[in-house]
Design a protein that fits this description.
The protein is mainly beta. The protein has four helices and 15 strands. The radius of gyration is 20 Å and the shape is elongated.
Amino acid sequence: MQRHHVSAVSFLILFFFRLMLVCGEGQPQSSVLDRHWYPGTATWYGDPEGDGSTGGACGYGSLVNVKPFRARVGAVGPVLFMNGQGCGACYKVKCLDPSICSKRAVTVIITDECPGCPSDRTHFDLSGAAFGHMAVAGENGQLRNRGEIPVIYRRTTCVYPGKNIAFLVNEGSTPYWLSLLVVFENGDGDIASMHIQEAGSSEWIQMNHLWGANWCINGGPLRGPFSVKLTTSTGRSLTAKGVIPSNWSPKATYTSRLNFFP
């Protein structure tokens, strides 16, 4: 890579831009996502007009059956699932046959893994409703009858209007083992790393990726309230200070007062 000399003014501009990238409330208003379309294949599962699976390999549970997830869920093969690191990412998927497909793409949220899907290409297994949404008016059923179809897809920004990032404390959590699931994350939608900070401490402790979209930490006894720092696959970072109270309980959801810009 070539190196270029920059002026002092340019250096300061670059410095403050990088500072904005790592501070939660100073995020630029669009994610640095790949805007190119790529080839793939798609199938569908569940009821023909259904919302897809209940739960799924990402661990979102019953949330997939209600808005804003409802009818937008999708399972993917290993290429995009990435052992759960791809959970929460959003994609636009479009079929190309003008005789039956509309020009609009369907936007789906990765909530599940597709068992047995090919590992040598990108594959989406969509809810019946999401799959049919790609058809021209009145041809939903005919499109579903085709089974597997070629598609193009691209990563897109996740947007959850009116929602702030929420943290679900997973069942089985104790003061010695705490497991969290993150939902309603605008922007990239996924999580590359997660850190937690105990009450009265300045140390950020890295959480371990457990499975799907679930993260955990061993230690103890852990003392709340806890602050949580998220970092996405594009390096965007956000800190929710004191979001989990000292009297937290398993299966409870704690909503922050912030989110990434869409």
